[in-house]
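Lines hold sequence, tokenised fold; shown next:
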Amino acid sequence: MSKEFEIAREFEVDATPEQVWEAITTGTGGYLWPMEPPEPRVGGAGPFGSEVTAWDPPHRYTNRVQNVEGISEQTLNQLDYTVEPRDGGRRAWVRYVHSGIFVDDWDNQYDGAAKHTDFYLHTLREYLVHFAPRPVAFATFDGPEASRAPDALAVVGRALGVGEDVTPGATLTVRGPDAFEAVVDHRDRYFIGLRTDRGLTRFFGRNHWGHPVGVSLHDFTPGADVKECEAAWQGWLNGLFDRP
């Protein structure tokens, strides 16, 4: 049964309002995924067939779309950002509201959207503080069908050496396609976030909502071959779930 939803979050970040504005309008690949920038005017075209309904740089941006392209679970989607200066403009306060209508499986859809929102906004803060406005090479992919299992992200965490007992902020030697040092910037039973000087690696426990585990790579190294990294991580993830 169709039902409205709203997910509202507020946070402060050590970035200027202008830096936040650039991230949410033209730099989405740094923390989310690359999207076409919105037309800078009310009534302009936004991502996923949306329309810009508020445009006041660097303070307010809203887009809205009905019958979301490629998303059968929704008939309405709206994203609203409010950005205000703090500490004389050296920092920013952000309010983000995601609202719309889920068509069916409401509780599962809402739970997944709410938890993903928290992780994406955390990644936005990591991007703003550590990498913005560097250009990004981005890749994302899913694990095999076996990674739908209820314990799939736990399996990934153990293989990486980033178990659920790891405290965010810890620096560890991570065991991926090769061994590397990383800060564990996020760790809970749903998501794992790793940060290096090179970029951000994100693991999504979408198995909790009936989907395969997902991985996103945000590489800020000049001239980075993200396809090579993607192939290495995809092979590692597939091999992990191919093991008896």
Summary: The helical segments are 17-25, 106-130, 152-160, 226-242. The mean pLDDT is 95.
